[in-house]
Design a protein that fits this description.
alpha+beta; 5-stranded mixed sheet; Beta-Lactamase; Heat Shock Protein 90; binds adenosine-5'-triphosphate; 425 residues; binds magnesium ion; 51% helix
């Protein structure tokens, strides 16, 4: 090596920021560079000649280093040689610091020396610690945030659930409101319909009164003209007409009275035993004034029926209403059939006509007071007969039903509980 390279080497050794320590095989410090002095805060003089243990803290068991070297020298087994490791260093004032030590072996004139490179880790450790603290802090923050987030999510879920329940409740109350609105509307409509029907009834009732009354009046004034004895049949014709008209008036009045009584719930029944066949003959006779030209009523007994125990007065009102309907809603010359049978303890009376029938859309309402089918507007009536019959049958514990085909005819079926004497009992 020439002088120039010596200087160069010295410059490199002294200018490096890492410490360089050379020890002999006994661990005695032979050389330290400037950086070593700065790192350990010693002067060169204070270090050279001392054991390397001088730079290590007590707790590091300084003997180990001697033993490492001894072992290496004896066996050649390197524990520290060529392998870097982290070591604690002790400064002059006793404070310690971490450094990275890498040791290499050098042989000069057959003697073994070890060169240690000391790289200060203080800053790196500080950064590491700061990083660890930062990471820990971050972890803490993340954990806290996660917890907060979970809490917020839970809160949101709860609010969501509450909202859902509120929405459901709101929907339910809206539906309830809609329903009550609808039922109010229905009630209002029914009220309106009833009022309409009542006024229709009033106009019809006055009409029903007027027609027979004016007929009676005209017949009475005509009667006055027939003074001759030979005009007796003409007189009788008008007397008959007057009688018929009075009966018609009586019917209308009866209807009125029935409605009043039915409304008041004060119907008293008077049951008694009577013969069905005699009763029917009588009812049909009474209907003669109601029948149109050439209309007939044919009664047929499908089973043997004679004496029954019932309210004949009420049954008469029911049958008069049904038979007058059958006549009123059928053409002249049509036959009205009446079929009577016994079914168990029930008396069943069917009244069958071949009249105008009831349009399907009206069928549900014909028992409603004042209701008249759309096809009956040209035929006189108050819309009370069936309502009365239905109510009376209720009172007697019976029932009424019907089948009808529009423009073909109708069958009304009356069922009445009774103790029937059919001859076999
Ligand atoms: P009234 O009070 O004078 O009897 P109405 O005959 O009109 O009047 P209901 O007897 O109650 O009243 O009958 C109600 C409606 O049912 C009738 O207006 C008619 O439209 C229909 N109806 C009843 N019986 C028959 C029938 N046999 N054939 C066709 N339509 C009928
Ligand atoms: Mg009628």
């Amino acid at each position: 090596m020439n002088i120039e390279s010596d200087l160069l080497l010295k410059a490199i050794v002294e200018s490096t920021s890492d410490g360089i320590i050379i020890i002999d095989c006994k661990g005695s410090i032979q050389f330290v560079n400037e950086s070593t002095c700065a790192l350990f805060d010693y002067s060169r003089k204070e270090l050279v000649g001392h054991s390397i243990n001088f730079l290590l803290p007590e707790g590091v068991k300084p003997k180990h280093h001697d033993q490492y070297i001894k072992k290496y020298v004896e066996t050649g087994q390197a524990k520290v040689i060529g392998v870097g490791r982290e070591v604690e260093g002790k400064r002059k004032d006793g404070t310690t610091f971490p450094f990275w030590l890498s040791v290499n072996e050098t042989r000069i004139d057959g003697k073994i020396f070890f060169t240690g490179l000391v790289h200060d880790l203080t800053e790196q450790k500080k950064t590491e610690r700061a990083l660890t603290a930062l990471a820990k802090d971050l972890e803490g923050k993340v954990a806290k945030r996660t917890k907060e987030l979970a809490r917020s999510v839970n809160k949101l879920l709860k609010i969501n659930l509450q909202l859902e329940t509120e929405i459901k409740n709101k929907e339910a109350s809206e539906i309830a409101l809609k329903h009550s609105q609808e039922s109010l509307e229905v009630a209002l409509q029914q009220e309106k319909n009833l009022n309409e029907m009542k006024s229709r009834f009033l106009s019809m009732a006055s009409h029903e009164f007027k027609t027979p009354l004016s007929a009676i009046l005209s017949s009475a004034s005509i009667l006055k003209r027939y003074t001759q004895t030979e005009q007796q049949d003409k007189r009788e014709k008008h007397i008959e007409k007057i009688k018929r008209m009075i009966r018609q008036l009586n019917d209308v009045l009866n209807d009125f009275l029935s409605v009043e009584r039915l409304d008041g719930n004060e119907i008293e029944t008077a049951q008694g035993e009577f013969d069905v066949q005699d009763f029917m003959t009588n009812v049909i006779e009474e209907m003669e004034g109601v029948l149109k030209q050439d209309q007939t009523i044919a009664v047929k007994y499908l089973t043997e029926v004679r004496s029954i125990y019932q309210d004949s007065h009420i049954l008469r009102i029911i049958l008069r209403n049904l038979l007058s309907n059958a006549a009123k809603y059928s053409d002249e010359g049509k036959e009205i059939k009446v079929e009577i049978s016994k079914e168990g303890f029930n008396l069943v009376i069917k009244i069958i006509d071949e009249g105008i029938g009831i349009p399907p859309k009206d069928q549900a309402y014909i028992f409603t007071r004042f209701y008249r089918s759309t096809n009956a507007s040209n035929i006189k009536g108050t819309g009370l007969g069936l309502a009365i019959a239905d109510r009376y049958l209720n009172v007697l514990g019976g029932s009424i039903s019907f089948t009808s085909e529009y423009k073909k005819g109708s069958t009304f079926i009356v069922k009445l509980p009774t103790k029937i004497k059919d001859g076999k009992e």
